[in-house]
Amino acid sequence: MNIQLQACTAQDADELFAFERDNRRYFEQSIPSRGDDYYEPETFRERHASLLQEQLDGKSFFFLIKNETGSILGRINLVDRHPITKRAELGYRIGRLNTVKGIATQAVRLLMEYCPALDIQEIQAKTTDGNTASQIILSRNGFKRVNEEETAELNGQQVTLIQFKRIV
C-alpha cells in the first residue's frame, strides 16, 4: 500500500477526531488512555489547536498517515524536540483496520526523511516489552535498543518500557 505523510492542520480536526474516537478501545489496549474528556469534541479541538501551536513553535511535529484516497490510516509524531541536542521522541499509532500491513514501518521510514529539514539528529522511542510488533518496526528502521528501561502502569498492570534510539 502506498502511503503519504501529511502535516496536521486545523482542517484535519474533524476527521482526526473521528479516527481517534473509532480506534479508542483498540489504542487503549496497548497505550495509556487519553481520558474521557479527550473524546469530547470541544476538548479535542482545544488540544488539537494546542498541538498545532507546538508545531508552529518547532517543538513538535504531527503528521497524518494517509492512503492514496486521503483517508487517515494513522498518525506519527516527533515531540519534545530539543533545539540544542537536536533530539525528539517518536510516537505513532495505526488504526485497528490497518495493522499488520507494513504501514507503520513505511511511515517511520518516510518520517526519517523529514528529520534533516526539522533539524533533528537523534530520535528516541519507547515501547512496552510485550509490543513485539513495535520493536520490529523500530529495528527495521535502524533503531537500536538501549539499556535504559523503566516501568509504567498500563490498564492496571505493570509493564516494562524499552527505549530505542536512532541517529539520523
Describe this structure in words.
- This protein is of the alpha+beta class and 168 residues long.
- It has a single domain (4-125), classed as Aminopeptidase, CATH 3.40.630.
- The chain is 31% helix and 35% strand.
- It has 4 helices and 7 strands.
- A 7-stranded mixed sheet has the order 1-2-3-4-5-7-6, sandwiched between helices.
- The radius of gyration is 15 Å and the shape is globular.
- The mean pLDDT is 92.
- Residues 3-166 form the N-acetyltransferase domain.
- This is GCN5-related N-acetyltransferase.
- InterPro entries: Acyl_CoA_acyltransferase, GNAT_dom, N-acetyltransferase.
- Belongs to the acetyltransferase family. RimJ subfamily.
Named CATH topology: Aminopeptidase
Structural class: alpha+beta
Annotated CATH architecture: 3-Layer(aba) Sandwich
Listing every helix as H and every strand as E from the N terminus to the C terminus, the arrangement reads EHHEEEHEHEE
Rg, rounded, reads 15 Å
Indicate the percent of residues in helices: 25-40%
- At the first level of CATH, what is the class? Alpha Beta
Relevant CATH superfamily: Gcn5-related N-acetyltransferase (GNAT)
Provide the residue-averaged pLDDT: 92
